[in-house]
Each structure stands twice: as C-alpha cells, then as structure tokens.
Design brief:
The protein is an alpha/beta fold. Helix content is about 45%, strand content about 15%. Helix 2 packs parallel to helix 3 and helix 21 packs across helix 23 (about 545-555). The structure holds adenosine-5'-diphosphate, magnesium ion and zinc ion. GO terms for molecular function: 3'-5' DNA helicase activity; ATP binding; DNA binding; four-way junction helicase activity; hydrolase activity; metal ion binding.
C-alpha cells in the first residue's frame, strides 16, 4: 500500500483515514470516507484502484474538474480518461475503444452518463473492481447539494454483473446524510471512516457589519499579498462588488453561472495561476478547485446551511497555513433564504428540513460560543468540544462574568446523580422542579435539588453550554457527563468566565458596558436628539430610543440604507429624523 503511494504519488505516509479506507476497499468492502476538504480523498480511490487492477469508475458531479484530475493522473504515469459532454464523438469513440482494450485504469464520468444505454452496455464489458462516488453528499436527499439523477445511477451500478467494491467520499455530511449514503450504497456502519472535521489552521470570524462593501475593500487592502475568494449570493451582487473593488484599485475577477464557459474557464485559470488574487463569485465557483494557498474566504452573504458554509469556507488554507474564513452577515440574508425555501417546489418534509438547516446557520451567526467548536458540533455532535482560542468569539474580551460559583453548583449536582442524565433533567433538578421522574430517581432528596432555583432555564443552558465549550462537561447524545478536568475547578485552581447572561431590563443597561458603542459619538447623537425633541416638542426617546442611538454609535451607518436595518428606524423617521444624525456621524468620522 505504502509502495503504491510512494511509487505513483511520491508521498511517504498516509494522511489520517486514508489507510483505513484503502484497506477496507482492498478487502472488498464498501466504504464511506468522511475526510475534510484537502484531506486527500482522491488518494482513497486512486491507490486501491491501482492495487486492485482493472478499471475504476469515478462518478463525480464536477465536469470542470475531471480534466484536471485526469491530467494529474496521466502526469503520474497512470492511464486515465473522462467521458463527458465536452468531448467530440470521435474522441469518445477513441476512449471507448481504449476502455474495451483494458487500457484505462481510471474512468471519470458525470452521473448524467448513466442515462446513456450505450454507456451502460460498455460498463457491462469492463473489468470493474472499484466504483468511487466522489462528493457523495450529492446522493442524499438530506445533503446540501442533492442531485436527483443519482437515484438512477445507484440503481444501474448495483445492476452491473461484476464484483466490485464501492467507495463514497465526502467532506461535508451531517450524521443524517452519512446514514443515508450508507443505506443507499449498502455500506455497513463498521465501514465508515471519519476523521475530524476540525482544521486548526482556519480562523473563523463572524462580522455582523452594516457596511459590507467597505469591510471587503478594507480587508483586501490590508491583505495585499494574499489570494482569496469572496462569495456573494446573487450575480448582481457579484458584479456590484467587483465594480467597487475595481474602483478601489483592487484587481479582481468574477465567476458566476451567467458567464459563458470560456469566461468562467478564464476566471478560474487566472485565479489558479495567480494572475489575479481575488475572485468575487457565486457558489458556482470553487468546488474542487485545486489552489492550496487561498488565504481568505469571505462570505458577503450568509449561506442557507452549515454544510454549504463549511464546504465553501473550507476552500481556504488547504496548504495548512493560517487562513481566515469570514462570514459577513445581515438580517436581510435570512429573508432571502426563507423565500427560497417557501417558493421551492419540494415536498413539505424537505422544506421543513431546509428550514431546520437554515435555523442552525442563523444560530452560527449569532452564537457567542466558539465558532470552530460550533461547526464541529454540528457535524460531530458527540465530539468533545474545545474552544479554539482564535475565532472571533474566542478572542472577544467580553467574558466578564465570573461563573466559577455557578459552575461548582452545576458540577456537584451532576456528580451526585445516581446515573447519567440529559440536559433537561439536570436543569430541572437544579431549578428544584418536581416531576415523576425526579421523584422516582429521588433527585428531590439531593442537597443540590433547587440550589439554582433563581436561575431561568435559559440562564442554566447558557451556563451549561459554556462548561461544555470549555471542555468541563462532555455531551453524548444529549447526556451530560463531567470531564476529569472539573477537579481543577472544584479545587479552586481554575476559574471560568462567561458573557453576562442574565437578561437585564433595558433601563439597567449601562452604556459604557455595551460592546463597541462609541461613547463620544453617542453623546453627540444625544445632543442632536435633544435639539430635535425641542423643535418637535416630543420626548427625546420618542425621536429614537437609547438603544437605537447606541446602535448608531456602534455601527456608524453611512447611508439611509445602512440605517433602515437598525431597530427603531422606520421609514418615517428615516426621512424626517435620520438626515441630521447621518450628518453628525459623518462629521464625527471625519474628525477621527
Ligand atoms: P480532497 O479531500 O479535498 O478531495 P485531494 O484529494 O484533492 O483532497 O487532496 C488534496 C491535496 O493533498 C492534493 O494536493 C494531494 O496530492 C495531497 N495529498 C493527498 N494525500 C496525501 C498524502 N498522503 N501525503 C501528502 N499529500 C497528500
Ligand atoms: Mg476531492
Ligand atoms: Zn473559537
């Protein structure tokens, strides 16, 4: 196995998961491999394909990639070919003949090929030992990129007379999608090989900016030597942002489905060959593009689900060097996705599923917890969580609430329970609730029953989450257990901080403690409000609430358009009150 790897590919060792996947394949088992982007999935079918001999069929949804893959194999002295619509009749005939002569070791095809009866009859005659499904999440209805045509492909593959193994490979699949792929492709639970989704070199950031264009221009100007991708959700936005970048002397190119094949190919090549460092694109760009030094991926809009996000963001840093994955987010993105879902022609079941996925994505943009851990938790719910110490949430400095005391109460409550319990039960016991189950287990007799009765259920889940994300509590199928490192907390060697979590009434919020509010600007804006209130003879807070002024002082909106998205700004106030505030913000900004 190692000999094949080093002989053809020049690598000395396998990456995590590769060897296990390959061993299973050569002992004729069907396998699902879940490896992160850049984890080396191709090797997982190429090495066993070479070892088994005969022809390996690689089914891939990405026509644009086939040529690259085939060229790379040929460059390593391996005979490979692809069959797709880009070839002439004559070229296809030549490849078919080579296949029949047993001269081709790897054949790449798109799922559509299986509609062709002649192709199927050709397959029947080949010495097939292995069939690989690349980007296997496309098989599953619950995946983020479902291709219905795969139903038929799977049926026809299983109908082939040869005896061969099947390998399915993907980077982004939830537990549910994994299960679905395994049942469709007849893969045993024991033959699933997963390596961690974690990629420590990716630094995740969420930025709820109201000035996305400005953010992008500043960012690319501050990272002048670096290549990156900026994803927008519509062609129009791609073009607008591209123009804005040009106006600011940033050399960029665009990529979306509205361009001709030639134009897209040129854009892709310009990027891959470092002729242009920034691509502004829709999600049509990037699947499988082999450019390892992408230093940043910025999402101008929020994608509709975490799989899409992680797959797109994961195109950064394939070379293992530190890279930024930044999600810019505006509430308006949510509406767009909700519209997509409700106007889609799918059945209700499917729509519900997409709605759930969207909710998870929105939660990612709003969470105060570690972003990396949140992503890992989404794909691997039972994985031990760890804070990454580098995402935009981990580096925030607003964890000001010392929760060590609460942590001790929670931990001693869990430790006293006679068996492992779920979130819900633990919270009920802490709050001193009496249910049949609690009585049955005699948890009401514990000294810890009701020790946190002054905390709401949501306060408690916040505290418990913090302990999970800090690795003091572990979760397995909703069951919480203490990690051995809780000793350091109980022995007072460690303390735990969290973000202030108790809901305060509005009056009590002290302006100084609100993160990011520019106090000097806030005071100026209050002055403007005061004047307006006198002119109009209405109370200052009826002009704008403190909250709205705080938002102004935080976001520093530049236009009416920026302002309308701030809570408390309606169209009437926008027209009549906002100009004065905008003026003040502008002149304030000019001074600093
Ligand atoms: P993906 O899992 O995203 O499909 P690829 O198969 O395209 O990843 O592999 C990513 C890169 O890693 C390629 O350049 C590949 O040659 C390289 N690679 C794969 N396996 C190994 C290995 N065992 N040792 C070193 N490099 C490897
Ligand atoms: Mg791949
Ligand atoms: Zn983090």
């Amino acid at each position: 196995m190692e000999a094949t790897l080093s002989h053809y590919f020049g690598y000395d060792t396998f990456r995590p998961g590769q060897k296990e996947i390959i061993s299973k394949i050569i002992s004729h088992r069907n396998v699902l491999g879940v490896l992160p982007t850049g984890g080396g999935k191709s090797i997982c079918y190429q090495v066993p394909g070479l070892m088994l001999g005969g022809t390996t069929i690689v089914i891939s949804p990405l026509i644009s990639l086939m040529k690259d893959q085939v060229d790379q194999l040929k460059a390593s002295g391996i005979s490979a070919a692809f069959l797709n619509s880009s070839l002439t009749q004559k070229q296809q005939k030549a490849i078919e003949q080579q296949l029949l002569n047993g001269e081709i070791q790897f054949l790449y095809v798109a799922p559509e090929r299986f509609d062709n009866d002649y192709f199927i009859s050709l397959l029947h005659q080949l010495p097939i030992r292995l069939v690989a499904f690349d980007e296997a999440h496309c098989i599953s209805k619950w995946g983020h990129d479902f291709r219905p045509s795969y139903q038929d492909v799977i049926y026809k593959v299983f109908d082939l007379p040869q005896d061969f193994a099947i390998v399915a490979l993907t980077a982004t699949a939830t537990a549910e999608v994994q299960k679905d792929i395994m049942s469709r492709l007849n893969i045993n639970k024991a033959d699933e090989v997963k390596t961690s989704t974690k990629r420590r070199n990716l630094v995740f950031k969420v930025n709820p900016t109201y000035q996305r264009q400005k953010f992008v221009i500043d960012y690319v100007n501050q990272h002048k030597q670096e290549a990156g991708i900026i994803y927008c959700s519509t062609r129009k936005q791609v073009e607008e942002l591209h123009e804005a970048l040009e106006d600011n002397n940033v050399n960029s190119t665009i990529y979306h489905a509205g361009l001709t094949n030639k134009e897209r190919e040129r854009a892709q090549n310009d990027f891959v060959y470092d002729r242009v460092r920034v691509v502004v694109a829709t999600n049509a760009f990037g699947m499988g593009i082999d450019k390892s030094n992408v230093r940043f991926v910025i999402h101008y809009n929020m994608p509709g689900d975490m799989e899409s996000y992680y797959q797109e963001a994961g195109r950064a840093g394939r070379d293992g060097l530190k890279s930024d994955c930044i999600l810019l987010f505006s509430e308006r993105d949510i509406g767009l996705h909700q519209y997509f879902i409700s106007s889609s022609k799918a059945d209700d079941d499917y729509k519900d599923k997409m709605g759930e996925k969207l909710t998870k994505m929105i939660q990612y943009t709003k969470t105060k917890k570690c972003l990396e851990a949140t992503l890992v938790h989404y794909f691997e719910p039972n994985e031990k969580l760890e804070e990454c110490q580098q995402c935009s949430n981990c580096v925030r400095e607003n964890k000001t609430y010392d929760m060590t005391h609460e942590a001790k109460m929670i931990i001693s409550c869990i430790a006293r329970m006679k068996q492992q319990e779920s979130y819900g039960v633990i919270i009920q016991v802490l709050r001193g609730e009496l249910t049949d189950y609690i009585r049955y287990c005699e948890y009401d007799k514990l000294s810890t029953h009701g020790i946190m009765k002054d905390y709401t259920t949501s306060d408690l889940s916040h505290l418990i989450d913090e302990l999970r994300f800090k690795g003091y509590l572990n979760e397995n199928d909703e069951i919480l257990t203490c990690d051995s490192n809780v000793k350091s907390l109980l022995n007072a060697e460690k303390v735990v901080f969290t973000t202030p979590f108790k809901r305060k009434s509005k009056e009590k919020v002290s302006i100084n403690t609100v993160e990011g509010v520019d106090k000097a600007l806030f005071d100026e804006l209050k002055g403007v409000r005061q004047k307006l209130s006198e002119q109009l003879d209405i109370a200052p807070v009826s002009v704008f609430s403190d909250y709205t002024l705080e938002e102004f002082a935080k976001r520093k909106p530049e236009s009416k358009q920026d302002m309308i998205s701030i809570d408390g700004v309606g169209s009437y106030k926008l027209k009549h009150y906002c100009p004065k505030f905008l003026e003040t913000i502008q002149s304030y900004k000019a001074q600093i």
